[in-house]
């Protein structure tokens, strides 16, 4: 527990501006963007949702949409037919069962079509300020590398890791870990030689240890690139982060 908390403290210093990497302005936009983020990058979702929400700003609008028109907008995110069906179905459920509002309770959220625990926690943590752990692919890989848990099922990982930290830290912990996984501790080639938490990491050496070679593996702002959001939070901009370009610009 001590080492886990120390790693989180170090990561908080490396990524003081860690944040959800999907652009959203309200809970409806966040739940739709999270559903769209399956099998694609947050960047691609962020480049696609401005057109979607400009045309369909509310669940009622999207519930009544012509699927072919939605498919056209969602095409860049991949699996666009299934995703169109999912977001229209989700919007219908919101409009019909929840008065057009995204519910703020886990038990209601997971009843929505296409919304599992992972999506529900993203929405609770980031749109409602309720603590939640997001066990995505990065989170699973990193907590195993750090030996925080031997579990392999997301629900069990969530429970074990949740037990190592106070509840109030869960949401930011998730952001720190996911930021680190995306930028430095990659699946195939972790950049160990450029990793600020290397002295605390039991998996140091699993990736490139040569500092110069490791530096070339860094992604996003640490490598001088823009982040994922077109409209990132101010703290990220203040730290020198660059907004992502709109669709078609790169
Ligand atoms: S030392 Fe390597 S394996 Fe450990 S967190 Fe850093 S990049 Fe990941």
UniProtKB/TrEMBL annotation:
Question: Which reaction is catalysed here?
Answer: 2'-deoxyribonucleotide-(2'-deoxyribose 5'-phosphate)-2'-deoxyribonucleotide-DNA = a 3'-end 2'-deoxyribonucleotide-(2,3-dehydro-2,3-deoxyribose 5'-phosphate)-DNA + a 5'-end 5'-phospho-2'-deoxyribonucleoside-DNA + H(+)
Q: What is its EC number?
A: 4.2.99.18
Q: What is one Gene Ontology biological process annotated in the Swiss-Prot or TrEMBL record?
A: base-excision repair, AP site formation
The record's annotation in Gene3D superfamilies points to:
Helix-hairpin-Helix base-excision DNA repair enzymes (C-terminal), Hypothetical protein, domain 2
Asked whether the UniProt record includes Transferase among its keywords, one would answer no
Q: Which is an annotated Pfam family here?
A: EndIII_4Fe-2S
- Any GO MF annotation of the entry: metal ion binding
Which UniProt keywords are given for this protein, alphabetically ordered?
A: 4Fe-4S, DNA damage, DNA repair, DNA-binding, Endonuclease, Glycosidase, Hydrolase, Iron, Iron-sulfur, Lyase, Metal-binding, Nuclease
Which cofactors must be present for this protein to function?
[4Fe-4S] cluster
Positions with a binding annotation for [4Fe-4S] cluster? 185, 192, 195, 201
What the entry lists under SUPFAM superfamilies is as follows: DNA-glycosylase (SSF48150)
- Main EC class the enzyme belongs to: lyase
**Where's the HhH-GPD domain?**
36-183
Stretches for region Disordered: 223-250
Write down the CDD domains for this protein, in alphabetical order.
ENDO3c
Q: Which HAMAP family match?
A: Nth
- Biological role stated in the UniProt entry: DNA repair enzyme that has both DNA N-glycosylase activity and AP-lyase activity. The DNA N-glycosylase activity releases various damaged pyrimidines from DNA by cleaving the N-glycosidic bond, leaving an AP (apurinic/apyrimidinic) site. The AP-lyase activity cleaves the phosphodiester bond 3' to the AP site by a beta-elimination, leaving a 3'-terminal unsaturated sugar and a product with a terminal 5'-phosphate.
Full protein name: Endonuclease III
């Amino acid at each position: 527990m001590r080492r886990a908390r120390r790693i989180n403290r170090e990561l908080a210093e490396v990524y003081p501006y860690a944040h959800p990497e999907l652009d959203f302005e309200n809970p409806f936009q966040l739940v739709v963007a999270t559903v769209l983020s399956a099998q694609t990058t947050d960047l691609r979702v962020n480049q696609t949702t401005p057109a979607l929400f400009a045309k369909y700003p509310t669940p009622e609008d999207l519930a009544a949409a012509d699927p072919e028109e939605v498919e056209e907008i969602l095409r860049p995110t991949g699996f666009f037919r299934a995703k169109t069906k999912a977001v229209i179905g989700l919007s219908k459920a919101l409009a019909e069962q929840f008065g057009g509002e995204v519910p703020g309770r886990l038990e209601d959220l997971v009843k929505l079509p296409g919304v599992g625990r992972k999506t529900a926690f993203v929405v609770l943590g980031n749109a409602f300020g309720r603590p939640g752990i997001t066990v995505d692919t990065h989170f699973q890989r990193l907590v195993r590398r750090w030996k925080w848990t031997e579990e392999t099922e997301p629900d069990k990982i969530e429970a074990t890791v949740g037990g190592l930290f106070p509840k109030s830290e869960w949401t930011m912990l998730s952001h720190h870990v996911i930021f680190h996984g995306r930028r430095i501790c990659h699946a195939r080639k972790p950049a160990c030689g450029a990793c600020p938490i290397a002295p605390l990491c039991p998996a140091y050496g699993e990736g490139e240890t040569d500092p110069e070679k490791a530096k070339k593996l860094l992604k996003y702002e640490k490598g001088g690139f823009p982040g994922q959001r077109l409209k990132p939070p101010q703290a990220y901009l203040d730290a020198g982060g660059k907004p992502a370009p709109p669709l078609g610009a790169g």
